[in-house]
Amino acid sequence: MKTIYFIGGTMGVGKTTVCQRLKQELTDCVFLDGDWCWDANPFQVNEETKTMVLENICFLLNQFIHCSAYQTILFCWVMHEQEIIDAILEKLDTADCKVKTISLLCSEQALRDRLLGDVRKGIRQADVIERSVQRLPLYQGLNTKKIDTSGRTVEQIVREILLA
Prior knowledge:
With 164 residues, the chain is α/β, with parallel strands linked by helices. The protein contains six helices and five strands; from the N terminus they run βαβαβαβααβα. A five-stranded parallel β-sheet has the order 2-3-1-4-5, sandwiched between helices.
């Protein structure tokens, strides 16, 4: 039986960093960041691009599910609404899979500090800070295991995910 981890969280909470580390800890593991499925310039959010990204994500995840080389699939994306998680899951062939849904959270101050550091490094634009902070409370209403990343190392978070 394969295991699929859905790891959600607002921008800057540590999803990609945690998944990259998880990938190293697990054997026969593959990782998909939902952002890779619509990395474009200019970045456009409209009905057409939202439909496209969901189709891209579901196609790739199903490919990983059907590939015998992988036993663990890591998928991370913002996923701030239960409808997003449900829409993806309903299009996946999960009959022989265990699905674990996790939301990474952190304090507002930790989030602001992390994102400001990214802005200073030129990795992100400054407008991401307020957009990310506004999404933070939305994760409390999701049907996911919540893991607080504030003041914790990547290794501690990875251990908690693996025990989930």
